[in-house]
Amino acid sequence: MRTEPKRILILANAFSGAGRATRLAERARAKLSGAGHDVELLAPRAFTDDGAGGSPDLVVIAGGDGSIHHALPRLIELGAPLYHLPAGTENLIARSFAMNVDPKRLLGAVERGRDLKIDLGSANGRPFAIMLSAGPDAGVIHRLAAKREGTITKLSYAGPVLREAVSPRLVRASVSVDGRDAAGPEKRAILLIANLKRYGAGLDPALDARVDDGKLDMVWLPAKNAPRALGWAIACRLRQHRRLPASVFEAGSSMRVAFAEMPVVLQADGEPMPTPDGGLLEIEALPGALTLRVPPEHKD
Known about the structure:
CATH architecture of the largest domain: Sandwich
Strand order of the largest sheet: 6-5-16-13-8-9
Radius of gyration: 19 Å
Helix content: 25-40%
Order of helices and strands: EHEHEHEHHEEEHHEEEEHEEEEE
Shape: globular
Strand content: 25-35%
């Protein structure tokens, strides 16, 4: 049975993958157009800043997780499903939902896939899909952003990671989850608030996080210095961090973070965030706020 033609908007981030995202977008457009679908290729900034693109049946983003992050407000507004053509360094959304660069898989998602609603998080009104954190990983993101010129690769992270390992940005903060005190400012720590259990470099600190439970997962790893921070990274990589008694894990629909020292470096979905006004973050889960178009290969 022939599939009814769909209006598909492809956003290609020219800075992702040294031009790879643009090539992937062109391949995707050719495949979808050849199957009879109405396809428009658009720059992400026109979609997010200018409101271009109308009301598509599907939005395809060729880029990294950061490209998705910046498109979230408009995607929420439109309610259109999203497919990720991965062209970034980690591509955690694509990896979690069986999306890849093969235009045949994309076409399969368009014509035989299904829509899956997932939760998002919101920090002071800014939505995020994967995670928000304060600590060394956010420090790496800020160091990279300060030096970034054009496209990046995994090798681009080497310098920022080494500098952060020597002088990590650890934080002091009070954290409450659904009104309960969860962690205090007595010790410096690494703070993570996750929606997705996958994380960069295979560290995956929030192993219990789910995108469909209406909750966010808070991970608090006390670390007073660089060796302790490195120890937590190793423990996360080995999936042993939950066994260490100093760690704190909480899940809830709302969280409040009051930073005791300023400024603080934050990141969301691998993108730098500014220090919040007054050092205060009000965080909430947004149940089912984003729709993904997942291919038949994705199994729950």
